[in-house]
Specification:
It holds the Pfam family DUF938. This protein is of the alpha/beta class. The protein has one domain: Vaccinia Virus protein VP39 (Rossmann fold, 3-Layer(aba) Sandwich), CATH 3.40.50. A seven-stranded mixed beta sheet has the order 3-2-1-4-5-9-8, sandwiched between helices. A hairpin with a 3-residue loop joins strand 8 and strand 9. Helix 1 runs parallel beside helix 2 and helix 4 runs parallel beside helix 6.
């Protein structure tokens, strides 16, 4: 916690490099859904620097209020009230959405939840709209660094259903529902920013 607010060092470390990428993707006015808002640090930083976007925070119903101290402190006009969102729900019951962003969620969800997230995103986006997914990913079943391998082991010790996801599985899932991988950006600390486009 910092100043009574929840705090993520990872968010603080990566918020600027992520902003630089998503600013080029989400460059038109619209409503952007964040899946897994967490502490709210990303929401505040991105909304401050992308005033053309109306930011819609969301998180698992058990966690949806965690971001409120950051949001209330920032008091930005382009951040909506956070919504509870269970990605496994058959109908997300959201207002119209023009883009989706999610950071460090795929490896803490179970694989069925990841698939459900992709299906839900595909259902709410129109053709040409984007889904940006940030985090560590494997390629061809291989870890990209020893630290990612260690992180994966740590995750599985907490919950066997967690783990770093493989790009082959993600692309197969996306292709089947009309989310096509447009860009795969290398990011610091062995992370990637994946840009999926609704076709």
């Amino acid at each position: 916690m910092t100043d009574g607010k929840p705090y993520s060092q990872a968010c603080e470390n990566n918020k600027q490099v992520i902003l630089e990428k998503i600013a080029t993707v989400f460059n038109e006015p619209g409503i952007l859904l964040e899946i897994g808002t967490g502490t709210g640090q990303h929401a505040v930083h991105f909304a401050q620097h992308l005033p053309h976007l109306q930011w819609q925070p969301s998180d698992h119903p058990s966690n949806a209020q965690l971001c409120m101290p950051w949001l209330e402190d920032a008091n930005l006009p382009n951040i909506n009230t956070p919504l509870p969102l269970d990605v496994s729900a058959p109908d997300w019951r959201l207002p119209p959405i023009n883009g989706v962003f999610s950071a460090n969620t795929a490896h803490i969800m179970s694989w069925p939840e990841v698939e459900a997230m992709f299906r839900g995103v595909a259902a709410i986006l129109n053709a040409g709209e984007a889904f940006c997914l940030y985090g560590p990913f494997n390629y061809g079943g291989q870890f990209t660094s020893p630290s990612n391998r260690q992180f994966d082991t740590h995750l599985k010790q907490q919950n066997p259903e967690m783990g770093i996801r493989d790009m082959d599985d993600l692309k197969r899932t996306g292709d089947a529902i009309g989310l096509v991988l447009e860009s795969d950006f290398e990011m610091p600390a062995n992370n990637r920013l994946l840009v999926w486009r609704r076709c």
